[in-house]
Amino acid sequence: MMTFETKKVAPSHADFIALVDELNLSLRQITRDSGESSFASDAYDSSKDGCIVVYFNDNPVACGVFRYHENEVCELKRMYSRRPGAGAGAYLLKQLENYAVEKGYRKAVLSTRRVNLKALSFYERNAYSQSRAYGRYVGTSRSICLSKLLVI
Questions:
Q1: Percentage of the chain with pLDDT > 70?
Q2: Edge-to-edge strands of the sheet including 129-130?
Q3: Which of 26, 55, 87, 115 is exposed most, by the fewest CB atoms within 10 A?
Q4: How confident is the model over 80-106, as a mean pLDDT?
């Protein structure tokens, strides 16, 4: 079992930026869209939002963000793991969920592209299920929205 470490950072952190750059390239290859337009780091509010970088042997290997969506609901954004299959993504997701619960959230929502089958199966393995489209994703057939209750 690999041992990971977590750092709570701001989206301006160099390691987060480097991982997101990789994410953008990866998404552009899968979906022809980097997803950059759906996350503005200057809209980040540290009182309501959370940003995490996961490290293995002091090297950044995964990142993710949650932000306020509506009362007791956060939205997961910019989820990325440099080491697919190594457990970093699942570890990251659990850390983000725990951090969100600490900030008072009871549910997480997210959107991903239907063509991103790796992401879809990852979220399904981690107990996310299809849910009602929200915000900019309403009426967008290429996206799928998922959610999970964090506090039952």
A1: 91
A2: 5-8, 50-56, 59-70, 73-81, 107-113, 143-149, 129-130
A3: 115
A4: 93
